[in-house]
Structures are given as structure tokens and as C-alpha cells.
């Protein structure tokens, strides 16, 4: 019996099941920077054209997303290539990428910016990342903001050359790999909620077996075939750029024919649904329309703490390196040089 329940054409952003709200894949082939980490301007200031080689999004010369607010959910930003400069209204900041994962609880309200500095002057600056929104239950909508940085050096993965696959676990557990600890108020912080985020690459001639979830059909599970030209799940051929609703209680065999011209990349999102009403307007996700109106009112009145940075689109010095500034303490990845912790 096949684990595939339904196959749809992949939308932008991806169609997502409860407890997820949103997922988008950014794949930009940015050119060498101009010395100030900038690229030639393209688009109209809101450019998401998938046929363009790269997008500026809402950036002027440095691509990215200048300051904007959120309330009532979490963002998981999982990177493969490129760098992100983060700043927020509670004074936290960071530069991360190249396999790092930032997990942020917006909770009662935060303003943050995410810019993509082009640090290479003499080589291209490719960017590949996912941003995933994970909902919060009503009891946690107004928790304090929080974020954790999962450095690439700590993110667990497995490569099986014989079977022809690579697996990266950004949340949950699979094949002996465990995701790093989420923020404390996250729906994912309770293992009973079975939240999982997997990045799976299967090479031509390779196979990967996705086992049933720990709580079976009580979880929602979707797979997204977002890169590659050929893949089959339980012997059913899946068109390129597809969203696949899965039976989380069933094992699924993912295979790529040896004749395929490229590897197949899939994102898997899984979790026990929250099962509450969702009211969403732009960057705010609550349970009722009245709560959405209150979010707009609160943001207009308080700016969620104000913006402590000198610019709407903050970019750190080119040679800054990867770091996280949290509650006044700067940390760096495990492989950074001595002095990785610095009190500011």
C-alpha cells in the first residue's frame, strides 16, 4: 500500500499542513559583490520572479528583507549556501549560513531584518535556503520572543554512498540523527508533537526509505520534490516541482532512476496538528480576526520594542564572519578561532 495520498503541483510559497504555516525555497545565483556586498538592482522592490537568475526581494542594493514585524508563530531558516545577516528589535543579531539553522520564536511580537550580504568580490555568491513558519498554539501566541542558532557543525546528517542518499535533520530524529533543541515555547519542544524537518537528497540510482512517524497517522506529513527531474515514491513517478501529501503511518521508499540527469532533493515536513483556528494577515498569525486587529494596533503603538539599529537593512562588515549576538553575548561556531565568546 503506497504512502502517497495526493500529489499536487508545488506552489510558491509551498502548500503546508498544520502545524506548519508557510515554506519557501530561495535559490539565487548572485554575482560577485561590488566591494560593498551589493548586486545590480533588479525588479521593482518586490521581486520574486522565479525565472530570474537572482532576486533582490525587498533590498535596494544588498538583497534581502529589511526590518518587518511578526507575531504568533516561529520561523525556521535552514541554509545550504550563502549568508544571512539578522537583526531584531530586542537587540539580537547574527551572521549565519553555509548549513546553519536559525530558529526564532516571534511570540508576542518582534521586528527583524534578514539581508543577504555578497561577501565574495571575486566569485559568485550563491544563496540556497528554506524559510519555514511553524505555528504556535493559542497558549503560546504571546510568549516572550526567543531565538537559537544551530551551527552547521552541530547539525546532524548522514551520507550513505552505497544507498546513494544524503540526509540532513533540521528537526526531529531519523536514521540516528537528531535535530538540535528548539526554543522552549516551540510546538516542537514537546517530542510528543513529532515535529520533523528533513532535507533528503537521493542521487541517480539511489534509494532512501522514510520510516513511519513515531505517532503514525496522528501526524501530518508532506514531502516537497523541489529540485531534480525524476523521482518515484513507492514506485509512483512524481512530477518535478510537486508537493506530496503522505500517510505518516506508512513507510515510503524514495528512488531515483539511474538514468536521471540530476539528483532529487526533497524537503519533508511532519508534525502533530495543533488543530486550532488560524487567522492570518501578512506577518501576523493568531486564532481570531480580533487578535489580528490587536496585533496591528500593538505594532503601531509599540513597534514591538522599537528598532535599535541605525538602518532598516543592516549588513555587517564583510570580514565579520559567522556569529550570533544573543542577550548581549556574542558566540561563534565551534570551529571559530579562540575568543569565541565575547561579552559586549
Automatic annotation (TrEMBL):
Residues 325-344 are annotated as: Disordered. One of its GO terms (molecular function) is metal ion binding. This is Pirin. Keywords: Iron, Metal-binding. InterPro entries: Pirin, Pirin_C_dom, Pirin_N_dom, RmlC-like_jellyroll, RmlC_Cupin_sf. Its cofactor is Fe cation. Belongs to the pirin family. Binds 1 Fe cation per subunit. It comes from Micromonas commoda (strain RCC299 / NOUM17 / CCMP2709). Residues 200-305 form the Pirin C-terminal domain. Fe cation binds at residues 68, 70, 112, 114. It holds the Pfam family Pirin_C.
Amino acid at each position: 500500500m503506497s504512502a502517497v495520498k495526493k500529489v499536487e503541483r508545488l506552489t510558491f510559497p509551498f502548500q503546508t499542513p498544520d502545524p506548519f504555516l508557510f515554506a519557501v525555497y530561495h535559490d539565487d545565483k548572485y554575482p560577485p559583490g561590488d566591494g560593498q556586498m551589493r548586486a545590480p538592482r533588479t525588479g521593482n522592490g518586490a521581486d520574486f520572479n522565479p525565472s530570474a537568475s537572482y532576486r533582490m526581494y525587498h533590498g535596494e542594493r544588498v538583497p534581502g528583507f529589511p526590518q518587518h514585524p511578526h507575531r504568533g508563530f516561529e520561523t525556521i531558516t535552514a541554509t545550504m549556501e550563502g549568508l544571512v545577516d539578522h537583526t531584531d528589535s530586542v537587540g539580537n543579531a547574527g551572521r549565519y549560513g553555509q548549513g546553519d539553522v536559525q530558529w526564532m520564536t516571534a511570540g508576542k511580537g518582534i521586528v527583524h531584518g534578514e539581508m543577504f550580504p555578497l561577501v565574495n568580490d571575486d566569485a559568485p555568491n550563491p544563496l540556497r535556503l528554506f524559510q519555514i513558519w511553524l505555528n504556535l498554539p493559542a497558549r503560546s501566541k504571546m510568549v516572550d520572543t526567543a531565538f537559537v542558532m544551530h551551527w552547521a557543525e552541530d547539525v546532524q546528517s548522514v551520507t550513505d554512498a552505497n544507498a546513494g542518499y544524503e540526509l540532513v535533520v533540521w528537526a526531529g530524529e531519523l536514521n540516528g540523527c537528531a535535530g538540535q533543541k528548539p526554543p522552549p515555547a516551540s510546538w516542537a519542544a514537546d517530542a510528543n508533537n513529532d515535529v520533523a524537518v528533513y532535507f533528503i537528497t537521493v542521487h541517480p540510482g539511489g534509494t532512501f526509505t522514510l520510516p513511519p512517524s513515531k505517532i503514525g497517522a496522528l501526524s501530518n506529513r508532506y514531502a516537497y520534490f523541489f529540485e531534480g527531474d525524476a523521482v518515484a515514491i513507492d514506485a509512483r513517478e512524481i512530477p518535478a516541482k510537486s508537493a506530496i501529501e503522505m500517510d505518516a503511518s506508512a513507510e515510503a521508499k524514495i528512488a531515483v532512476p539511474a538514468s536521471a540527469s540530476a539528483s532529487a532533493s526533497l524537503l519533508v515536513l511532519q508534525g502533530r496538528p495543533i488543530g486550532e483556528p488560524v487567522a492570518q494577515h501578512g506577518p501576523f498569525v493568531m486564532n481570531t480576526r480580533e487578535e489580528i486587529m490587536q496585533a496591528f494596533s500593538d505594532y503601531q503603538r509599540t513597534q514591538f520594542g522599537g528598532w535599535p539599529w541605525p538602518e532598516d537593512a543592516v549588513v555587517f562588515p564583510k570580514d565579520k564572519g559567522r556569529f550570533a549576538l544573543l542577550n548581549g553575548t556574542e558566540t561563534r561556531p565551534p570551529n571559530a578561532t579562540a575568543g569565541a565568546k565575547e561579552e559586549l
